Amino acid sequence: MAVVGFVGVGRMGGPMASRLLDAGYELCIYDVSPEAMKPFAERGAQIAASPAEVASQAKIVLISLPTPDIVREVALGGNAGLINGSSVKLVIDLSTTGPGVAAEVAGKLAQRRIGWVDSPVSGGVTGAKAGTLAVMVSCPKKVYGEIEPMMKTFGKLFFAGEKPGMAQTAKLANNLLAAAAMVATSEVMAMGVKAGLDAKVLIDIINASSGRNSATQDKFPRAILPRTFDFGFATGLSYKDVRLCVEEAEAMGVPMVVGGAVREMLAITRARFGADSDFTHIAKVLEEWAGVEIKG
């Protein structure tokens, strides 16, 4: 197989790049952390000194990066950006950047005859390792057909449309709902425990009733009731995604009343526990306010 480039082999990118190696793809990788690249070097991947060097070795380059500003810098920045690579023909963005940045970067890459694919993913580190991610894709139909076999390595694909940013809009919508479920569930769980209900019993009741959601079915049983708070998604990243969603919606003239409240709760959680804390710490904020502990 031809060499595939991969920039950003951290918590999400690392497992996805590893799955490509497992599937037989030859990789050329770059990450700002030498430690992150070390396991890939040991498995035979080429190690590059910059994104531009990756883009000079591979026609297809995938990127998995934490923020829109970093995506913009890696794709377009200075002499080290992907845009300056001598081989790259297609960049696939697995990050959550928002439709605005996606359209901007796609337009500038197009001037160099480099194609762009939005492909944000959902399912966390667990899904990245297992190959069970929801993979949202927007790009020309012809390009989708060409990359589909490789992208299926990561999970189930959903074609969102051909316009740059469409998959990003879908991802932001999903992540706002996931965060909203965490906030609302934390509130009712704190109320229930303060009223004397057993937290596990209340979760079981909700999961057998109409209030069940991703927080009650997964995040509370896995990371909050056991008091581990280690679901695997950073508060800072969740705040970034919700902020992007609210801002994009408002720019379209779509009101985000609940979305604005969710953004505020994530801002409070980030201020209290730090951007690197797990976003299940939202529940800890409610515990402190209510004077209770939500545990199994």
- Total helices: the number is 13
Top CATH class of the largest domain: Alpha Beta
Mean pLDDT: 96
Helix content: 40-55%
| CATH structural fold name of the largest domain | Rossmann fold
Distance between the termini: 50 Å
Low-confidence stretches: none
Major sheet size, sense and barrel closure:
6 strands, parallel
Supply Rg. Answer: 20 Å
CATH superfamily of the largest domain: NAD(P)-binding Rossmann-like Domain
- What CATH architecture label of the largest domain applies? 3-Layer(aba) Sandwich
Q: Based on DSSP secondary structure assignment, what is the total number of beta strands? A: 9
Number of domains: 2
Shape: elongated
H-E string: EHEHEHEHEHEEHEHEHHHHHH
Structural class determined from secondary elements: alpha/beta
Which range does the strand content fall in?
5-15%
Quick recap:
With 296 residues, the protein is of the alpha/beta class. The chain is built from 13 helices and nine strands.
